[in-house]
Amino acid sequence: MVARLQGHILTPDGFVAGALEHEAGRITAIRGAPVADARAVRDGTRDIVLPGFIDLHVHGGGGHDVMDGAEAALAVARRHAAHGTTSMLATTMTAPLEEVQAALAALAPLVREGATRAPGSARWLGIHLEGPYLNPQRLGAQPAFARRATLAEVRALHALAPIRVITLAPEVEGHLPIIGALRDAGFLVQVGHSNGSYEDGVAALEAGAAGFTHVFNAMSPLHQRAPGMVGAALAHAQYAELIADLVTVHAGAARVALRAIPGLYCVSDATAAAGMPDGEYHLGHGAGAQRVHKCLGAVRLADGTLAGSALTLDKALRNLVNIGLDLAEASRRTSTMAAQYLGLHDRGRLAAGAKSDLVVLDRDLHLRGVFVEGEFVEPDTTGA
């Protein structure tokens, strides 16, 4: 049965005032007249329809962590769907290898291609292996179980559950030589949790690295005589993640990255605290678990170290607009560019044939409705 939405609809060619039709999880038609003045999009007379958000770095939400297994991951997917995220990657923590293996085995039925999506939940697109191939000097909130990567070990983990993105520190012995092989095997390798130099970052890109994990955070900083990994990202990256909560990264630094990196896309790096009130939560599982505290919009370890975030991507969209991006550009940074990075052609855009993954917003950019592959999901309007 054909469903129809009316409003200001963001297409690849810009906003149109008209109607979007979708059926059986796909957009079938978009009809309308171009909106000549972008300011009219938020005039309050029509709903605003954007592509659903795509989050490539999610640890948890709603009080749950994906390392806890399938039941917890389902709860995470439901909480983020209620905030407009329609597809995402389940992101691991650094942990003993057997705990990473157990987490991937538990997540596999949810994240494999063609897996049945639970009602009311976002679509899991696979795994982002953020740990354990990190530099022990740049762990951030990751526990001290970093280890060196090998191609054989990554392939064995991939056999448990499909890995799409791998974060590693290229300066760690043995990492730079395997980046090309990982790329050729189909993985997107990201530089992150790295204490490497600017030159290490450039070498990683030349070897086949595709992007940078939460740029600015857990990497060697920019200095005019030692540009560090941040300098390599700003000078050379095509793609990188940005945590756009305006706490983890200052608004001014965010604007620098937005100006410098063409394919910069927003991630939440959300912990179990996302969508929850202030209080104590956990990050990771078992020996790799950390206790974290949500307060005043930030998530921290007991010593004050930032530990992921409590961000959801509906808030990220509003933050980007509040620091000066126009709405179409903010939408690209919270959806389209992440889809392009993963090589997805039917998500992150509203066009005939694309998945009917979309969000409906009011003039203040608060959610009025969410559709995941055509299924209506009631948005969370509590403000948590």
Please describe the structure with a list of short key phrases separated by commas or semicolons.
about 375 residues; alpha/beta; Urease, subunit C, domain 1; TIM Barrel; 2 domains; seven-stranded mixed beta sheet; 9 helices
Instruction: For the largest sheet, list the strands in their spatial order.
Output: 3-2-1-4-18-19-20
- Tally the helices: what do you get? 9
Number of DSSP E strands: 20
- Helix % is 25-40%
CATH homologous superfamily heading of the largest domain? Metal-dependent hydrolases
Helix/strand order: EEEEEEEHEHEHEHEHEHEHEEEEHHEEE
Shape verdict? globular
Q: Name the quaternary structure.
A: single chain
Please indicate the count of domains. 2
Overall SS class: alpha/beta
At the first level of CATH, what is the class of the largest domain?
Alpha Beta
Mean pLDDT across the residues is: 95
Could you explain the architecture of this structure?
The chain is α/β, with parallel strands linked by helices. The protein folds into 2 domains: 77 residues, Urease, subunit C, domain 1, CATH 2.30.40.10; 291 residues, Metal-dependent hydrolases (TIM Barrel). 26% of the residues lie in helices and 27% in strands. The protein contains 9 helices and 20 strands. Strands 3-2-1-4-18-19-20 form a 7-stranded mixed sheet, with helices on one face. β16 and β17 form a beta hairpin. α5 crosses α6 and α8 packs across α9. The protein is globular and about 55 Å long.
In short:
The chain has 9 helices and 20 strands. It is α/β, with parallel strands linked by helices and 384 residues long. The longest helix has 16 residues, at 327-342.
